[in-house]
Amino acid sequence: MPSVRIARDDPRAIHSRGIVILKPAHPLIRKLKRDLPTPCIHGDKVWDSSWLLMDELRRNPPPVGATLMDLGCGWGPLSMFAAKRLKQQVIGVDADDGVFPYLHLHAELNGVSIETRQRRFEKLGGKELSSVSTLAGADICFWDELTPVLFNLIRRSLKSGVRRVLIADPGRDPFYQLAERCEKAFNSRVVERTTSTPKAAVADLLIVEA
Ligand SMILES: C[S@@+](CC[C@H](N)C(=O)[O-])C[C@H]1O[C@@H](n2cnc3c(N)ncnc32)[C@H](O)[C@@H]1O
Q1: Cα-to-centroid distance, 135 and ligand 1 (Å)
Q2: Is the residue at 1 inside a domain?
Q3: Looking at residue 120, which CATH number applies to its domain?
Q4: How many CA atoms are closer than 13 Å to the CA of 72, on its beta-carbon side?
């Protein structure tokens, strides 16, 4: 059970898809910001594409109890959803360990337990990917140099037995470059998704299947 309850009408929190996520203005987040160094690779808020990724996972859920690795997990919105609503064993991976206090705060509020690993995508090896069923990441392909890094990671993951890779993005060039490379090399497709909750958002999802 969560140790702190966030009221449903608290305007500094988002209740959506069965999880609760705090906005930057919430006092618990403000305290972390005051006390700790600021995350430095854009892991400084919850990004919108993660909601669309949750919807896709809800539509086509992985088997209960399987392992989902949340790539570039940031504050952990996707990790919360996967652990709480889909009963996944979740590993949150991020290069920036400054995001983990935010993720663990959300884990406490949502009453789930998430394993975290400070790791760069390029350092995720076959051994640690071999236990993973779903590899998923929201808003993680935002620089040109991330395109080959993520392409190689997807290739390694499929070789290691990962069943499905899902990457959501609001429509940046490096993401489309990645999607193009994946469409040539793997069983993959891109679908556009929209939502109106918790706010209006559009994202493309790259879906790669073994
Ligand atoms: C735009 S944020 C998205 C955070 C989260 N997925 C969300 O939807 O709220 C990108 C995240 O990817 C992480 N990241 C960026 N490059 C990375 C790399 N090469 N390896 C691992 N994590 C990386 C950042 O630290 C950051 O937390």
Answers
A1: 14
A2: no
A3: 3.40.50.150
A4: 27
